[in-house]
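Quick sanity check, IS200/IS605 family element transposase accessory protein TnpB:
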Amino acid sequence: MRDAAGAVRSWNSNHPKRRWNLKATRKALVINYDLRTMSIRGNMLTLSTVRGERRIRTLMPETPVWFAARYPARQLNAAKLLIDPRTRTARIALIYRVENETPAADGDVLGVDLGQHSLYTDSRGGETKSNKIWGAKRKYAHNRKTLQEKGTRSAHRRLKAMSGREERFIRDVNHCASKRLANSPNVQAIAFEDLTYIRRQATKCTKTGKRRRNMLNQWSFSQLQEFTAYKAAANGIRIIMVDPSYTSQRCNRCGYVDARNRNRARFDCKRCAWSDNADHNAALNIRDRAIASLEHNHTSTDRPVDRVQSTTRIDGTPTMTSTSDDDGRVVGTTFTSKPLGSPQR
């Protein structure tokens, strides 16, 4: 509501002779259902409406064989009805609850250092560069600026067609990277830095430059952590969040902390002269802090993975999100119906 009010105020201040008089339009309608307001009998899905005895009934496609085989003990938990008034189509997302895999009792702790130049570097030496992400961001930013300056109807059509492409591309890159991390062999835990307050460096009152602030604001580290968390939970791997203080300045060999130890991508300890890749050295420090927290049973460093999100389209493509908790995770299926007819009794 505040964002909408701010948009109206901004429009009125920028266009004093053409004040806001447009009617609000809803792009999509989302209705949440639980077991009290929905039921499934065979392939018949019944949804309640606000009109009392009136119901919406629709036939669902067959459950995919791979989905039934992977989650044999699934229990229906909830559903979401998404109606798009522009295309007059509806989608049903069925959300099931399944038990988490038993956490691995043995294995290594994998430390992961997230960065802006390298998407991630782990303590085993694995690395994924972020060149594609920043290249795509620069390309889309340039195209948006050029089309907005053009201002023609054709340019507005191109802007509309471009909307969402950048976000979908970054989500795909993060999904691929998180899958590689979650499928790491012989791992019982994955350790990340808790970067909750990293964006405080992006405020104008700090000495951070404009380019650096923009990169911090566009850094999707939280999305990569969330994707890794629910994929790791499916494999029985826990997630540990550690204090990020001085992980990039501390020598993993002797423990000496000095800002001069790191010079861009190189780490050269001023005390013991040990040299390594700077991101790999930070990943080793993150791993050691996670191991120390496990040994001393410092559970306060663990972030509860209770809002992990994961859903799957009925044909197997990821589409939507749902929730998970410590006792179980949630998976789901989605199918798109034809335009809904009138509700049935």
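Posting the structure with no commentary besides this: The chain has two domains: 20-100+323-337, 108-132+165-295.
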